[in-house]
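Researcher: Batch entry, complex prediction.
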Amino acid sequence: MTETNGSIIEGRTGPWEIVLGLEVHAQVVSNAKLFSGAATEFGAEPNTQVSLVDAAMPGMLPVINDVCVEQAVKTGLGLKAQINKRSVFDRKNYFYADLPAGYQISQYLQPIVGEGTIILDLPDGRTREVGITRLHLEQDAGKSLHDQHPTKTYVDLNRCGVALMEIVSEPDMRSAEEAAAYLRKLRSILRYLGTCDGNMEQGSLRCDVNVSVRRPGEPYGTRCEIKNVNSIRFVSQAIEYEARRQVELLEEGGTVVQETRLFDSGRGVTRSMRSKEHAHDYRYFPDPDLLPLEFDDAYIERIRATMPELPDAKKARFIADYGLSAYDAGVLVAEQETAAYYEALVEGEGGKTRDPKMAANWVIGELFGALNRAGRTIQDSPVSSAELGGLLDLIADDTISGRIAKDVFADMVETGKPAGEIVEAKGLRQVTDSGAIDSMIDEVLSRNADKVAEYKAGKDKLFGFFVGQVMKATGGKANPKLLNERLREKLQ
Amino acid sequence: MAALTDLTMAAALDALSKGEFSARELTEAHIAAVEAARPLNAFITETPDRALAMAEASDTRRRNGEASPMEGLPIAIKDLFCTEGVLTTAGSHILDGFTPPYESTVTTNLWRAGAVMLGKVNMDEFAMGSSNMTSYYGKVENPWRRKGNNRPLVPGGSSGGSATAVAARVALGATGTDTGGSIRQPAAFCGIVGLKPTYGRCSRWGIVAFASSLDQAGPMTRTVRDAAIMLGAMAGHDPKDSTSVNRPVPDYKAALTGDIRGLKVGIPTEYRVDGMPAEIERLWAQGIEWLKAAGAEPVEISLPHTKYALPTYYIIAPAEASSNLARYDGVRFGLREPGDSLDAMYEATRAAGFGTEVKRRVLIGTYVLSAGYYDAYYLKAQRLRSLIARDFTQAFEDVDVILTPSTPNTAFAAGEKMDDPVAMYLNDVFTVPVNLAGLPGISVPAGLSEDGLPLGLQLIGRAFDEETVLKVGEVLETAANFTARPGHQSA
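Model: Structure tokens for the complex:
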């Protein structure tokens, strides 16, 4: 049996390194398809979003949807990639029932976007660069439905012709963890840009993984392509399985055959998928129905001007301006909406600002926890940033303690009431009257004279006991700072 | 007055505007001619009811003072153009029962210009052929016969039904499409005018595709003036065709001034091919003399890559066709032959649905695009295509128009050349380079062969200079004074 330890697999005969490259198909956010005016909405009734072009009726011709081109350029800029001012659409020829024209329009030798870079944020706070080989535009195929009829296959062409960006990485990743980080980061960038919604369950982000293994320092081994792995968790599982399979095969003296494999998520295994009759020769050639795609620098600059602040820049800014840790900043910028929530919380209303570190802790800790339990996203958070801000303000001005605030927050999530109202209604306001605290301290100390003696004899740990007793007596409402001060004084 | 079916478009328009007859009367005469000409098998689908309805609507428009440039003119449509609600076959079994729910841009333009549809005319299957012998709907006969010989002759192809219909006085004009000579060669064989416009001049939207980078629709008429009228109606930018060019459509009739003084006419040395009949050589020389007499200046030019044009064409056109014809798979429309699996259904459908010539070209096209052969065939052919186009560009630095024969021979008998595809392909030797370069070309009837068959001369122009091609074409037409009539003609 083999052991996986990050990027290295310890085999029977020594260590092996995993080498990974990803091909991601990202569905372009656009109202119409890549070469037709048909709608692209997910989940419509079968064959209700199909134009004559999509159905490849005789004499129909493709016309490029400029929106999709803009989205591809925007994505290329987001990947810090080379934008090719001249690119060419090619036909990839093969027969299948859900490919009406008998060819897919894609880009083969001259893609719209060339080499770029993506920076991975790893869980331990490290970062790592992964090269992007290319991004090209292509059409999606339709869907064959084999389960609708005992002997027939039904075809749904709604998806046929929808624009995809195929984003190919360099073989720069060395572990399932890095592959997962790559997908998360890519998805984050795409969502920031608004060029793909990144929804893997609905298939708007699909991933093929190229896996090979080698002895550290040796040339690349033969790779297998694992097709259509439709969640980040499955990507990790598929890689773990496939890398081990290859190592075991090689250690038994076998060779890895370059092939396409399918991940079976039910059994957690990959298996060979390409049968002989589908060993395709795609006969790529430039599509004579379309002119080369050409634009100038001004076009690229116009698109650049519409770019939002992207996760890497935002993260750097959060670290610099708010003094956050790289990890916290990375978590907060992963989703644009989280970052926006956080910033609204820190910047506050009417020019007041809040403690950025406390705000980060509350968002990452309490808010994320509450959202997780409720199965909600930050966009439909039960507590708005202004409401959470109200709670933080009560902590800041000593109205309540941080501990009480957690209870108040739970109430806010449940009832939707503002923090102040809950504090008042439940009488949670802190006791900050030093006279009242003094008398309660006196009472606790007199009741526990033996412990006071022990404390004075050097058992320092009992200080916490006294604090706890006073807190209990005040229902947790004593101002902790004041309590500590007064207690220390009285015990001297 | 001449029979209604013997009029030119220009004469018919004149008479219609003077109220000498109605569009309905003109159309009725042509419907009768369509019926009388059935033995020629020019039509796949006759649409007399639609024709009459369109003619009446035209008469109404004319009464209301809304006459358009082709108001009331009955024409035939090559069955490669999709026509809404009317069977469209491309001459193929595989499109059995296919009735498009849409109308091609070119026919839409023609109907907007007031033209009347008599029906859909026969053609080589998927426009692949030079004889009209490959149609699933049977061969078309040329209305002409050799002197003293009644053996049926081919009308040429692929727009053979169009050429026969126009030559036999069954339609005032017809649409054709030209991928390697499919308008000009049948026009030459049938003694009519055929114009292939510049690539991008007429929209390809709604025309069943053969080879997308070469296909171009154009008019087939009995006079150059009629071609100018009809092209004006067909042409124009179409946002639905990305290769359609956005530039204004000139008034082509206005270019027919008859004045070609000082114009330089290129005579390409490389078009003197081996084995070309002497009578075609003589006609070409005669053509040069006619233009010279009209004040033009002949200039010997060289188009050095001409000899590569046919092999280049027979790589690029089948390559594109093999991909364009992939959609005829039995899944969504047309013929379906059942099979035990998807692949078996494809094989059965395409085996039954495509004829021999189509299969040959799909196979050639598939081969030249295959891994390992792409560079040697397709890529090399693309490079040659650029060189062929450059030959023309360089020639047009010195000359305004180029004069060549349209075809290396006259119409042949049905069945001849059928056993040798290469001999058949040689028919396109003078026309194919024009498609590869995307230029406008016209075939004008210029004389008769010794055995009494029409011969055409071809004029090739600069890109989007149809005006010069038409102007010189009309001068040739006038000089040639081609008044001969085919044996079969209506009325």
